[in-house]
Amino acid sequence: MSSDGHTSEAASSPRFITLEEAAAMTTGTRVTFIPGIPAMYSEALKNICYVKGVPLIRVLHPMMGVDKETGADRQARLFELTSQTSLPTMLHDEERPMNVWIEQLALAERIGAADAPVLIPADFEQRLEVMGLCSIVLAEDGLVWNMRILGDSPLGRKYGYDEEASSAAPGKIAEVLGMIDRRLEAQAQRGSRYLVGDSVTAIDVYWATFSMSVLPAPLEIMPVTKQNKGMLKFFRLNGEIPAIAEALTPRMAEHQQYILSTYCETPAVLGGDLL
Fold this sequence. Notes:
By secondary structure, this protein is mainly α. The protein has 13 helices and four strands.
């Protein structure tokens, strides 16, 4: 980051390698991304690795669907190489590919820099709090899961969209938001800016990242690209759904911006075409 707080031209246009190149490598940490798009799980993993001081090699993740010219499944090669198609896929040295957030977090914690913050507390009671909160944000039927079934789309159907589940989703999202806000309030009363304990943990990074799906971050944190402008509009509209809007608080925005600007790379480096 430069002295004026902005990334360099090179950092704004990161290099992405192909799946074939990533699969052939035997060293290094490779993570799949879609250039210009802050897909939430990829963006969160990128932030986790940034906090842990893990250098990432960015890999092109194929889009869902069928190639219009060939009729081939665009993710077929990804499945051949990794036995799954989830975004992001994480490869490290010669270890097996990892696509589940909890495995990716454990790997980042294991390979992170010696002086990096500890994101999974050694204290088991605090670990219980951190991982429990992570589950209501990242896991099945949590915040992101319900955000993705708000509307009928290929991604929504992948997550089990139907009218009944979609109707219930705003209330579930609001319930998660209320839980996060109550914890932020309780922590502030004891003098902590973090969701658990007195230092940054995985839930701070995950929540600050995923909160952008209902609480848009300022441009100095999340820039607009040609590729993400539709996604950011969707996120903004999510936050305007009455049940969700009522649950959002200034505390959440303050925490989001503090964590992302203090611990993560901002403005977010996405690749793609900046607007």
